[in-house]
Design brief:
It is globular and about 35 Å long. It is α/β, with parallel strands linked by helices and 123 residues long. The protein has helices at residues 13-22, 41-48, 70-75, 88-93; strands at 2-5, 27-30, 80-84, 96-97, 102-107, 116-121. It has a 4-stranded parallel sheet. Strands 5-6 form a two-stranded antiparallel ribbon.
């Protein structure tokens, strides 16, 4: 099960921790809007919230090739994927820069629904 949240602050860290404890196979992907200019600001939020124990490290995200199996992610308890829109944060804070791993797709469904955008993790 993968849940995608586009706004981090719509949910609290307590809700995330509780869900991880309740559903042991849960994998959550967060793509927070990033307005924090304080160095290490966003990563500090995750550290203080105690969520880094679930963190899927950017070093394990493949640039080319297959992602780890869900069973592997669950076994290692690395079930929280976090991406940022700030390229510099990948190097400085270890938060994956979304455009290194995602592509943006635009689909036309029907004449009444002109188009919509969705993001896909690049494999």
């Amino acid at each position: 099960m993968i849940i995608l949240f586009s706004h981090f602050f719509l949910i609290s860290h307590n809700q995330i921790s509780r869900k991880f404890s309740q559903i042991l196979t849960l994998i959550i992907t967060l793509i927070p809007d990033y307005y924090v200019k304080t160095p290490k600001g966003l990563i500090r939020v995750f550290i203080e919230a105690g969520l880094v124990k679930f963190w899927f490290p950017v070093t394990r995200i493949p640039k080319i090739g297959d992602w780890p199996l869900v069973s592997d992610m669950v076994a290692k308890n690395q079930r929280l994927l976090v991406f940022t829109s700030r390229k510099s944060k990948e190097q400085s804070e270890g938060i994956a820069y979304q455009w290194n791993y995602m592509v943006e797709n635009e689909c036309k469904i029907s004449p009444t629904i002109k188009s919509f955008l969705f993001f896909t993790l690049a494999f």
